[in-house]
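Exam prep: given the inputs below (a chain plus LLZGTKA7), describe the expected output before reading on.
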Amino acid sequence: MTPAPIAVALDAPDLETAARWASLVTPHVSTVKVGLELYLRYGPDVIASVRGASGVQVFLDLKLHDIPNTVAGAAKAVARLKPAILTVHAAGGPAMIRAAVEAAPATRIAAVTVLTSLSEADMERTGLAGPPGDAVRRLAVLAVEAGAQALVCSPQEVAAVRAEVGRDIILITPGVRPAGSESQDQARVATPERAFADGADLLVIGRPITGSADPGATAAGIAAALRRVSAAARPGV
Ligand SMILES: O=c1ccn([C@@H]2O[C@H](COP(=O)(O)O)[C@@H](O)[C@H]2O)c(=O)[nH]1
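Solution:
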């Protein structure tokens, strides 16, 4: 069975837990995601630990945001770890995004548009007034023009972003919550089925999988739900 387009967020307090989650979910999902918690605690070695023997695709979610020269140096430093995807903040601007793209040519640079934890009210307080979709679309276009090959947005905006940037850009959606589960600190959420049907290429899912009693079974269940969405959208294929 082809692994589902899911990146499991390995936001674990220690390396053993992260490696265990990775080995439980990798038969079912295409990608594991290393974020700030794990990377700042263990450094570059964490990548090999979670990649393990399976060779699963690793998404390094460092959300770089600094002046272009500094981001270029940071992107170059982590490019040797060969992550499939590396995140930068779109709000860092076009020169910063371009610097990351040029510094890590073998890695997909994904620009985070607006964090999925921000509500419309939060955004207004940070100076991004108006519907979240407006700022997300504006930052998406800016990032793609600067060379980003992927974008991070919430599942609530994914269809509008797709319409704006076309098929070639990889759309990645955190803020995914299976029906009936708590949104926790996420503000702009949707179910895995909705995110996938609306055009997301890669769903980031952390706690709903890693916080469950059986992360492998939970990942397998969500993967099966996505296959049903695919089959319904393209019967006979
Ligand atoms: O806008 C963003 C960008 C990144 N993330 C990251 O995704 C996961 C989500 O984990 P859950 O446990 O499913 O909430 C987490 O690692 C974030 O750092 C995001 O949530 N929103």
